[in-house]
Write a structure and sequence with these properties.
Elements: E1 2-7, H1 15-29, E2 33-38, H2 39-42, H3 66-76, H4 81-92, E3 95-101, H5 109-118, E4 148-154, H6 171-174, H7 176-184, E5 189-190, E6 194-196, H8 204-219
Parallel strand pairs: 1-2, 1-3, 3-4, 4-5, 4-6
Length: 260
């Protein structure tokens, strides 16, 4: 299996760096091929601008409309070289590991900028169904369908505080914008995340447990049962993209988008 490992931590000697090394070695030992996007080491530019699309400023009223500019640049082959290089890695990959520390309830800005710049319209979204004109392929369908995605996250919080009744919110819901709103939205098959809690004070025994868990999860990335998100075009949602009332009747919140 071809695995792209996207790593977003500024210090390679960190806990994240050590865990990344453990996972990459495990993949190699199991016979998988791995490519890397170490965003801080690459000096990845996280902000979108005209240079991404090969466009130059025109008259003062020539606004940059990112969605249309990105689609046009993807179609015409004028995306900047660093974006094209990341898309080529994604095209090559059967699975993607996304590793980062949880900062302020989300991913580091550099990783958010990787998605903003690489997942352009016409490549990762805005793809129409040729068999059903006007219907968009998303939430389980799209050009990235068939690729598996595994999120590996470290959190300073103890595990109970990121549980279903924890003050920090349930981790699956904290990560919902990434797992469902980005990865599943673009068609990727999303696996249950790997979480390492209490990351700022992890004793050696718990580090070994975390490393063993990561090795097991990355080497079984092709066999792990994915999160059971509902397909947009599978009949569960009405024309306004609202869950049909006969499904999870009376329930609200993020949990209704998981099929039983």
């Amino acid at each position: 299996m071809n695995v792209l490992w996207v790593f977003a931590h500024p210090e390679r000697r960190s806990l994240n760096g050590s865990l990344r090394d453990e996972g990459v070695r495990a993949l190699a030992d199991a016979g998988h091929d791995c490519r890397h996007s170490d965003l801080y080491a690459m000096g990845w530019k996280p902000t979108v601008d005209r240079d991404d699309f090969g466009e130059r400023p025109g008259p003062s009223d020539d606004r940059l409309i990112v969605t249309s500019a990105s689609r046009r640049a993807h179609r015409d082959g004028t995306l900047s070289p660093d974006i094209r290089a990341e898309q080529e890695k994604l095209d090559w990959a059967d699975a993607v590991v996304l590793q980062f520390p949880l900062w302020w309830y989300g991913m580091p800005a550099i990783l958010k900028g990787w998605f903003d710049r690489v997942f352009v319209k016409g490549y990762a979204y805005g793809v129409t169904d040729p068999g059903h004109p006007g219907r968009t392929l998303r939430y389980g369908q799209g050009l990235l369908a068939g690729k598996r995605a595994l999120v590996v996250v470290t959190a300073g919080s103890p595990e109970p505080a990121l549980g279903p009744r924890g003050i920090n919110g349930w981790l699956d819901h904290v990560l919902f914008p990434l797992l469902h709103g980005t990865l599943w939205y673009t068609g990727m098959t999303v696996l249950p995340p790997v979480a390492v809690y209490g990351a700022d004070r992890l004793p050696p025994r718990e580090y070994e447990e975390a490393a063993a868990l990561l090795r097991e999860r990355v080497t079984s990335i092709g066999d792990t049962e994915p999160l059971p998100f509902r397909f947009q075009n599978g009949g569960d949602y009405d024309d306004d993209l609202v869950l049909r009332p006969d499904l999870a009747p009376g329930a609200t919140g993020l949990g209704v988008h998981y099929a039983p």
